[in-house]
Amino acid sequence: MNGSLVIAGLGPGNDALITPEVHAALERATDIVGYIPYVERVAARPGLTLHPSDNRVEIDRSRHALEMASEGKHVVVVSSGDPGVFAMASAVFEAVENGDAHWRDLDIHVLPGITAMLAASAACGAPLGHDFCAINLSDNLKPWVLIEKRLRLAAEADFAMAFYNPRSKSRPQGFVKALETLKNTCGDARPMIFARNVTRPDQTIRIVPLNDTTPDMADMRTVVLLGSSQTRIITRNGAPFVYTPRSVLT
Amino acid sequence: MNGSLVIAGLGPGNDALITPEVHAALERATDIVGYIPYVERVAARPGLTLHPSDNRVEIDRSRHALEMASEGKHVVVVSSGDPGVFAMASAVFEAVENGDAHWRDLDIHVLPGITAMLAASAACGAPLGHDFCAINLSDNLKPWVLIEKRLRLAAEADFAMAFYNPRSKSRPQGFVKALETLKNTCGDARPMIFARNVTRPDQTIRIVPLNDTTPDMADMRTVVLLGSSQTRIITRNGAPFVYTPRSVLT
């Protein structure tokens, strides 16, 4: 019996954003592996075993999934958003590279999903409508000096920016420093967007001029976007639209 | 009668990547507006009028969609991929900002889709698994000097990179210059991925060391990815996996 391993993106939270391709993979699965709240999004059914695990065990979780796939099971590793953006796909491939040689020849596929920054951008207009970058602000797996360097260079390149994992209880100071760096390098009132629980019933979107932002505006359920110098706000009744134009004037 | 305007992403090509949210919007629509090949992806039905238009008329197309929405129609503007990434959402908001004052108060929503770089990344592993940027290489709407500056700074920041619209018949020299800049600034053999017609039946994925790339490897149906200095290749029977690890060693 040939097993398989699919690393699938469940999108940002609303089930109406899960692709039919991912739904089909979940229906074929014998085993679901992932962080507890993501596995909870998959409906139980006969013949399906759920393997929820705690956060920060990505490599162990990946090895477990690979072992089950080599035993002939049809395993789906679930991620929030897109599995290729600061999520489980890299962890699985790292486990493959450093694991049993025959894992390399397993049937492994990544199924993309709607990543949080695109859902957040859509929720307020099109702030990522021009060149942009995505930076994970967690320094659990990389040195802070590299994050700061990327923030400075991204500002110099005048990218719109998306920030994942902006602020956790165990890392309260990182986002303080990130905002300081951005205020110093951008030096203007371009809009910053705090999108919390995006696409869920309790979604909140706050649009705040960079100069007026404070660190407590973000937590781990928030994806943060920052416009480029070209980003514009359209005032109106109700929430404004924010967008970055397609043209850059010379 | 209150009209509405939805700007919806059809994903990279395979209909199994269209979200249920977008399907529902297409079912409610009275009018579909978009570039000819994207409108062709929407099935005709009684009560639905299709308005295909040529490329490079984004603002005219947006104004037409806004006019119909103000007349009470339920208009869906379709984009390939995600409408907020180098696509129609920015064009619509630009038309709103510069158009009739009452357009600002229309019921306008953006529905995200799977953008090409995420589908391309998934197709070969997880090359965008760490910090990355997305750059549109077309200089139709911005000066080449800005593109070149962004390429240099993105290389200095050691981002993985995704390039949209790499090379068209009317702009054959841009990608020549882009490759030259990248070879000079990166100066190594990191993998470049040419994903053509990604998720379609005729999908092709080529993985080529940056130093060995040539401009003819890309056209307008290709999204191009470039690994960071950390990106790794897992050799195996069949196509290799490419991924960027979650950790950066200090």
Question: How would you portray this structure in words?
Answer:
2 copies of one chain form a homodimer. Chain A is α/β, with parallel strands linked by helices and 250 residues long. Chain A is 30% helix and 24% strand. The first copy, chain A, folds into 2 domains: 4-114, Cobalt-precorrin-4 Transmethylase, domain 1; 117-243, Tetrapyrrole methylase, C-terminal domain (Methyltransferase, Cobalt-precorrin-4 Transmethylase, Domain 2). Chain A has a 5-stranded parallel sheet with strand order 3-2-4-1-5, sandwiched between helices. The first copy, chain A, has a 5-stranded mixed sheet with strand order 7-8-11-9-10, with helices on both faces. A 3-stranded mixed sheet of chain A has the order 6-13-12. In chain A, helix 2 links the parallel strand 2 and strand 3. In chain A, helix 3 (58-70) crosses helix 4 and helix 6 (144-156) runs parallel beside helix 7. The longest helix of chain A has 15 residues, at 172-186. Chain A is elongated, with a radius of gyration of 20 Å. The first copy, chain A, starts with a strand and ends in a 7-residue tail after the last strand. Chains A and B meet through helix 1, helix 4, strand 5, helix 5 and strand 6 of A and helix 1, helix 4, strand 5, helix 5 and strand 6 of B.
Keyword list:
homodimer; 250 residues; alpha/beta; Cobalt-precorrin-4 Transmethylase, domain 1; Methyltransferase, Cobalt-precorrin-4 Transmethylase, Domain 2; 5-stranded parallel beta sheet; 5-stranded mixed beta sheet; 7 helices; elongated; methyltransferase activity (chains A, B); S-adenosyl-L-methionine (chains A, B); methyltransferase (chains A, B); transferase (chains A, B)
